[in-house]
Amino acid sequence: MTLPQTPALATDCVVFDPLGRVLLIRRGHEPCAGKHALPGGFVKIGETVASACRREVKEETGIEVAKISLVGVYSDIDRDPRGHIVSVAFMTELTNETPPRVGSDARSAEWVDMGDIDLAFDPHAKAKLRIKDAR
Amino acid sequence: MTLPQTPALATDCVVFDPLGRVLLIRRGHEPCAGKHALPGGFVKIGETVASACRREVKEETGIEVAKISLVGVYSDIDRDPRGHIVSVAFMTELTNETPPRVGSDARSAEWVDMGDIDLAFDPHAKAKLRIKDAR
Prior knowledge:
- The structure is a homodimer.
- Chain A is built from two helices and seven strands.
- By secondary structure, chain A is an alpha+beta fold.
- A four-stranded mixed beta sheet of chain A has the order 4-1-6-5, with helices on both faces. A three-stranded antiparallel beta sheet of chain A has the order 3-2-7, with no helix packed on it.
- In chain A, strand 2 and strand 3 form a beta hairpin.
- Chains A and B meet through strand 1, strand 5 and strand 6 of A and strand 1, strand 5 and strand 6 of B.
């Protein structure tokens, strides 16, 4: 059976360290190359959304996350310039300070104070809200 | 830009009436024709997940829902025999007793007591859990 065409499905993770900083990457590719973003990416057919979330965090930052909690589902039509992409956002809090290492699709991966955040995708205020929701 | 192939995206709604009953349809088509299911369906490209949820409830049962709250995201690989379909579930509680009317894709639409529920899709226990999560 052919399934209908639906929006593309992605996932993001809001990872806090014990100091309350947020794990961000700088995007390596367009769109928004060089801008901060939450680690995340597209969900593959055959993996759960939670598995995709853990996989993307690991691939992009080297950090392994275990228990993740659902934050929200972001589906505004114009939130991503590539097309209609729905993102399922999760959050987790690490108990240890863990240095990230740069992985796939990222130019850098770093811990960033909440006040300094200016994210790729979604309107600016909404992306910040997404992180504040997660706390 | 071509977006990657990702799981198909659907939405379901757990609608409670003031008596605590749940709004269910009986499916008109295969798979699971004749079985109870939550009203819902596929998200269209160009609509938010919440809009899709309200549209599907209206189309299948004639009932208009306004404020809906996120319950969970269900993405197990084998939850739907048609392929990998991820469902975003919302819930709402109606303040008035409202008789449903049968609409598209449904054979019937009715208010059902929690104890009598045996749903299409997801393993049985999980689908019930989804409704209990919503309360």
